[in-house]
Every structure is written in structure tokens, then in C-alpha cells.
Amino acid sequence: MDNRPAQAIATITDASRALFRNPTVVFRPSAYWFWHAIPDAETSRRQLADFKAQGFGTILIQARIAFPRDRYMSEAFRAAYRKAIGIAGELGLKAGIYDDYNWISGHAGGRTVEGRDDLRERHLFWATTEKGGGEISNIRTPFVQSMGPDIMGWQYENGAVLWGDWAIEAALLHSADDLDSSRTAEDVTDRVALSHSDGVSCRYAFDGEVPAGRKLTVFVSARSTSSRLINYLMPAAAQRFIAVGLDPIVAALGDLVPDPLGFVFYDQPAAGFYRWDQISGNLGNSILFSDELRSHIDGATGVSFPLTLHSLLYGESETTLRLRAKFYEAYSGLMNEAFFGTLRAWAEGKGLLLSGHEILPHVGSWSLNGGFTSIDPRVAPATDFFGIDAFRHETAVDANNFIAQLAPKLGDSVARSNGRSRCAVETYASALRTRVRAAGQWELTLETMRAQAIRLYCLGARQFLWHGLYQTDGSDADTTPFVNPRFDFGPGINFEPWWPYHHLFAEETARISAFIEPATPHAPVAILYPLNTAWSEGPRHAHADHIGAWCEHLLALGCDFMLVSEDDVERAVVKDDRLSALSGLAFDAVVLPSVTVMKSRAALDRLIDLQTAGGAVWCSGAMPAVLREGPMPALGSWASTHLADRPDAVSVTALLETLPKRGPLLSTPTGEKPWQWIGREADGSWRVVLFNDGLEPTSCDLNLLTGFDCEIWRPATGEITSEAGLSSLHLLIEPQMVWCMRLLPIDGTGWRDLTISEIAWPRGPVAVLAEGWTFEAGGGGIVVPISVERGWERQGFATFSGTGVYRNRISVETAGRWLLELPRVETAAAVCLNGIEIGRHAWSPYRFDLGCLGAGSYDLAIAVSNTAANRYYAGTPYQGEKLDASGLLAAPRLIAHEADLTGTTSC
Fold it and tell me: Taking the model in full, what pTM does it have?
């Protein structure tokens, strides 16, 4: 309980209510504003005013690949940038600097390396043979090449991957069978020399014969002569990036920094993920190389550079695993400090905050490396997510498509570990109907987008960052991905027909985020983020899938969790039977997901303390066997539970049954729980968010161990109502409905049970309105008869994307209060009765209270806006097998208020 005076707590609560009713820009949606050309002032003002009207709070200008690269950072670009940010400030919008051209922060549209070839990315390659000579050849970047020639042309001059400045960096003779470097390797670097090199390959020769039973591994460095990407190990590269890519913008903005422009946002800095024909061993891509790396690694490992490099590839002994972890810690630390450290120091000097996200190999997935499965994230600024976040002022992550995933949960976790909370989640859409991912999802509905936003808030997001708002919707004549803005990770939601409804989404979701803000998550379980295991074992190790399995099962069972670092565990204290972290979170159980390598004894000791005190330590898969900082002690049976295999729903259910029951208790008749978020305020009250993202109604019983008063905070309207003296609350939750409730524990007796639902009045007779409808597409003046039981795309309007109006003359035979229900709509609808708008909805349930109607006839109009898919994909390779459903797909229904018809209520 909070020890602050009751008056102070009341003041905080009043502020929370005010924030809920009118959320600030911190909680409102933000977006990249894609520029495809330099806009004039009129275009900027028109679009920014539109973004503001639709509920956005923050804008980041991003030049996309359609923008002429030679005009990026030009005087005209900077002048338009200043004008746009000035207009944004006048409108009450906030802004941040998206720090690069297109994406991959650091290159400044190629300006960073122009005239500075020394700053271009330099990599270390290797080959292992049984012969005295070998080669490095066919170096390629599948990660980039998969996105097509235009992306290659943006990242590489003339679209070709070329190399130069080849050099032998290390060479070792080692056993062909026993690959442990500490026992078998001999440094022969001075006996290997280059025999040939050109722009695409090199050959080398060994001075002598490779003995029988031995192999030769040679490490060769090369600098890409054509890449516009930088060497992230070099502070000079980050400094040059700032000089040519950030300072000119800040100088142009002048007094607009730090308000309305208050932060800089980096995006996925990473050099090319290269592979070549001779690649082998544990490491899946080349690593960045610099002269500083050699001395840095020597000092960090205490082992010669060649032997350390060999350990990255071969061997599984304790010595090798330990050496790998030490290498990657030093390598990541050098890279993080050189790039993120330089950026942070610059940002603070300009009065700006630093935010952004690194490459997230788990994007779109729960498995730690289930998103970008083709890369080895250890070579990039990645893997050490807790360490990277320490350089940010505000946490941000990346999410792909409209499914629950690890990114926001990990983002919230690293933020709390570093003394903050929650995160911004950049959300982008990859195509589902075609293998060309950049074609996007123009079939996206606001209902889908809203459901994802609510899930993100339940998983740790504070702000929804959309990718993106478009300056233009591109061309009908070009299907080239990226180059045609239309197919550059669509949709540009401001070109969706349902865009005028976006403000409804913005207001409601911002209130949900503001509602969550004052409380600390109730997360009974901590999952140890196995950093040293990830470094030592690599991304294909079982720890990645074990994390995914734990996350999915815990959430499905209604148990929230956080990821914690070893440092978090080490700094925590065991209080009673819980692990209390410095972040303010307290855990009943800690999970070790197939952890094999840990940093030191300190975190293990804390886990043993937890288990001894009555808390729980759950392990799955492999058990810890190696400590990076010393020998592993004989621990005996120190874990509460060890699951030999990946956890399943049955085993996780059984484990959760052993935990103490704390906080609100939720139960459902089927056992399948709605999406939920539970948090506790400093005064002991609880905040609960429940969301049904399914297709069927569900119910939920909500209880505390004591009685409680309940405040119902309605995010759609900002209304707050109260129910006092409850023992339980039974909720009926229809599809797409969300509840926000604040529970205040009370003492006493005489509590009551309460049942509530969204339907506030009983249903009476129903009239199905199936006949007599006409339809007008897009205000064209052509009115035709239409069926309301199948979409307009099947009735002569196959490529029409826009707003179509259904009209009918309906009869009401009995005076009373009436409701109009639209059982199936694609995708947003506004209802007018006798020319007066009754209401607007863009997600289920589509119900419109028509109020009290006398007997008689009425003109009913239903304006429905679909998605842009049928128009933008028509005649393209991205169309898919069928058209998107559009308009009304089932007959509207008039439903009477039963009490009004019987005369028991006043109409």
C-alpha cells in the first residue's frame, strides 16, 4: 500500500481521470509521414491538418525510396521540412526526426560514405579447407536481395555487391575431428597470404602443406566498395552520419527544436547479412570488422584474436562456449557504444530524446528468432536488447502484421529494466496474398487495426506508431514494389476509404493506453532472457522456441509475464516468497527457457534463494551448464520444476495452479480467456482491461479476495461510472468489445453480484430489412437496385473502392424506441435517418440507436466504406484469388426496445 497522504493519492487519481478523458499526445497514435517528393506548403498544411483531425498526435517525416535520393537533404528538402514541422506545431502536433532516407539508420541516403570510403562496412569472412589454399567467393546478401533490385540499387551503388581492401586477419591449423580451439588450434596467420583478389572474390595460399587429420581455417577481411551502409563499429561513422544526416535538419529547424520536434528516431541499423559459398560453423553471417575490434577482443577475452575467432565457428566445450559469450559481449558493446552512444550524446547536446528500434529477429513471432529466420542477429546491433535499450531515452520496437507477438512485451521488459516503462510499437503490414511482402495489405480494416492496437497495449505498448501515412497513393500504371508508393508496405491508411473513421479508433485506443499508465503490471512470472545462451549457442538453439512456447501458453492461460535479464535477477531481492526487482515488479516464479550458458554465479544464487524461500524456478529443455565468468558449481536439484521438453498447455496449466492467487481473479465458462491486462496502483486499487478479439461472444467472472467498488471507464466516450459494494462482477463481452475497470478493495459485508453487458436494453420484435434497397457508388449519381445479402463487389462493382450508399424507405408500425443492427459490414458504416446522421461505426458490433420513432415511414441511408484493395490490386499480380468483400453482406435488422413497446418506459 502507498504511504502517501490520502489527499495526494486522490489528486493523482483525479489527474488520471482527466488524462483518460483527454489523452495527451504521448498516448495518441503516431505515424511515419512518407514523403515521395518535396511537398509545397499547401500540401503539408492540408495533410497535417487531416492527420490531426483523425486523431494523430506525433508525426515523423520519412523520405521513401520513391523520393529522389539526390534531393534528400537538399536545401529545398530542408526548407520544406522546416515548413512542415512549423505547421505541425501550429496544429498542436508533435514531431520527431526519422533519421534516414528509407530505412537502415546511419547511411544518410548514402551521404555518410560519400568521399569517406573508410567508413563503408567492412566484414570478416572465413573458409575452412583441408588444402593449403582456398577462396572466398560468391558473397551475397540474401536478406536484402529478397526485396528486389530496387532495394539493392538503393543500398549498393549500381545494385552490385563489390569488395576491396582484402586482408588476411587470422589463420589457424586445427584438428579435423576435435574442433575445440583451446586444445587443437595453432596460429599460422603469418604463413597465409593473398594470391589474388578482385571486386567479388579473393584467393589465398598457405606456406606449406596441411597435415593429415588437420584443417586450415582462414579469416579474411574486406571492405565493401559499393555499399552505402556504414561500419557500425566505428564512432567516426556515427559522427559523420550526424554531420551530414542530422545536423543539417536540426540547423534548418532552429527554434522548432525541442518543441514541437523533441526526439530523434533510429530504425534498424545493421550492416549487410552476408553469406558466401565457403561459410561454415556456428556463425551464420559475416561479422563487422575494424582495427579497433582486434585489440578490444584481445583485452576482453584474454585469448589471442585468432583463437577467439576460431571459437565462434567450432567446438562446443565449456571453454569454447565461454569464449564465444565473451567475444559477443565485447563485440556488441563496441558496436552499441560506437553508434548508439554517439547518437545519444549528440541528442542530449541538442536537447532531444533518443528513440528507435534495432533489428528484431523475432518480429511477427513469439519465438525469439522466429521472424527474420535467415539471419544471425549476433552480427548486428541486436540480441543484447537490454544493453541497447540503455542508450535510449524512450523504448521503441517493431511489429509485423496484425497478430500478437513478442516485440511489445520485450520492449516493455527492457524499458522497465532500464528505469522506464512501456514502449512505442511501430506496426507495418506485409502482404498476405502475394510473396511480394512490400505489396502490403490494402485489405486492412480499421477493425483489424484496432484489435491489434488493443493487443499491443495489453502487451506493453504505450503508443501505436503507424507505418505509414502517405504523401501520395502512387500510380495505376506501375506494379513495381517500393518504387511505386502504392506497393511500398501498404496500406497508406489515409488513402483507405475508411480513413474518415480513424479518429474513432484514435480516441478510444489512446484512452485505453492512458487508463493503463498509472498502474504497474501484475505479472506473476518472469522469463529469463538467456543472453549468454543466445550468444554462445546461436539463433537456432532451442532457447528461442522455448521462449515462444512459454509466452504463448502463459498469455493463453491469462497469466502475464515479463522478461528479465540476468542483471535484473542479480539486483533483485527475495522478499517473502517472491523475487522483487528494482523495476517495482514482483514475481512468484522465474522461468529458464532451455538456458545453457549464464553470466555468473550471482544470478543463480538469487534463483536458489527464491526457490528456498518458497518461490518457484521453472526450467524447460536444457539446464544451465556453463558460467561465463567461472566454473559451474555443483548445484544439485535447485529448480522447483524441470520440463525435459518444450512446455505445452497442460504442463504450464499445472505449474500455474501451484502459484499463490493474488489480485483480481478471472474465470470463463470455457476456460478460454479474453485478452486481458491487470495492473496495480500505488493505493492498492487494481486496473483491468478485458478485450474479446474473437468471433463469438464470451463471458467472464471477475472477483477479488475482498469485496470491491468498481469504476467502469468507457474508452469510446471517456465516461466513468461506478458500482459499489460488489462481491463479483459477471461480464458479457461481445466480439470486439473492450472493458476498462478500476477495482477498489473494500472491507465489510453485504456485497452483491452484478451482471453487465454492452446491450443496455432488452430486445423486442425484429424486422428484417431485406428488400427494396438501392445503391449509389461514390456519389456518381447512378442509382441501381442492390441486394444487401452479398457484397457490392459481386453485383457489378468489382473494382469500386470508396463509399457506397444504400437507401431504403422503411416503415415503423409501432411507436417506440428502435435499434438498427447491421449483422455483417465491410467495413465502416454511417447511418442517416431522414437525412440526419445517427451514428458511425468502423468495427463490430454495428448497432445504431435510432431513438424514439413514431409509427410511419422513414428514409434510411447507410453509407458504407470498404478498403482500397479491390481498386489498387485490380489488374496487378497482387490481386489474389478473390475480391475483398465490400458493403453490406447481410440484411439490416430493426430491433424494438421491448419495454418501450409495452409502455413501461418513457420514450
Answer: 0.96
